Amino acid sequence: MKYITLITSNKRKLGEAQAALVDFNIEIRNKQFDIDEIQGRDAVKIAKHKANEAFKLAGEPVVITDTSWDIPALNGFPCGYMKDIANWWAPADFINLMSGHEDKTISFTETIVYQDAKQVKVFDQKFVGRLADAPRGSGNSMDQLAEFDGFTIGERQQQGRFSHDPKDYIWYKFAQWFDQQD
Asked: pLDDT for 50-61, tens place per residue?
């Protein structure tokens, strides 16, 4: 059995990784570090920095995941700032901000970075949905509003599910690559 060390304190991200990697017989060893994440609009730059910091702290090959959000009607806001914003803002704040906009499209790009002493490998995938008109489900403000295939992330969480099928996650593509590594 192969294993990877995933650096995250986010239970959702850990669960998504486990759900996708089980088909490949890849075990996850989870470690948590307080990493000062850079902020900005470039999701890959943010994720690579986070992986480099995690690699230095762990002293072994690591994998990190980072999510960047994009609301086209708001010129791409909130980008890599979502972690803080989703906890600061209530669902009503997003609804009020979007009240003058017809386009309710929202997307997130999930970026996974693997880093060891010899290489940095980046995987990313974009998921497109819409902002719901009212909060549904549990979790932070964005969990309650980001809707994919008719359900908010928060509703899926209440059902004990993830926002997408594990085979549709970027983790599945990572697993296909990692499974081929020595």
From this structure: 999 999 999 999
Residues 6+ apart with CB under 8 A from 127: 107, 108, 109, 110, 148, 163, 164
Residue with the bigger pLDDT between 81 and 2: it is 2
Return the percent helix, strand and coil in the chain, to nearest 5.
40, 30, 30
List, as one string, the DSSP characters of 86-121. HHHS-HHHHHHHHTT-S--EEEEEEEEEEE-SS-EE
Domains of the chain with bracketed CATH: 2-179 (3.90.950.10)
Q: Which of 72, 11, 16, 83 is nearest to 46 (CA)?
A: 83
User: Tokens at residue 113, please?
Assistant: 């970075």
Diameter of the chain measured on Cα atoms: 53
> How far from 180 is each of 100, 123, 174, 175, CA to CA, in Å?
49, 15, 10, 9
Helix (H) / strand (E) element for 124: namely strand 120-131
